[in-house]
Design goal:
The protein is mainly alpha-helical. 61% of the residues lie in helices and 0% in strands.
């Protein structure tokens, strides 16, 4: 669902808003973000907010699997055992 929405956009909404306010993408991007702790903290907060929004779109069972596999780094087979569900090797994500 999110991929379809992003594909329909020519520009992300944040870039459009920045341009309307007289700024540009190049002017907003820090050329060396690792040097600024504030930039790192802001980037981490944006990532956290995006992940919350993304996971809220998932059905409950998919959300559980996502947190076990991606959030905690468990193998899919172990996540399936924890959730007492079938693990289909053919449909599992690579990795």
């Amino acid at each position: 669902m999110a991929n379809d929405y992003i594909r329909q956009l020519t520009k992300l909404p944040s870039y459009e808003i920045a341009e309307e306010l007289g700024s540009s993408e190049e002017g907003l991007i820090d050329p060396n973000p690792a040097n600024d702790p504030e930039t790192v903290a802001l980037a981490n907060e944006v990532i956290r907010c995006c992940m919350v929004g993304f996971t809220e779109c998932l059905p409950v069972n998919q959300r559980k699997v996502f947190f076990l596999v991606i959030g905690m780094g468990l193998p899919y087979k172990l996540a399936a055992a924890i959730l007492d569900c079938r693990f289909d090797q053919d449909n599992a994500a690579p990795g």
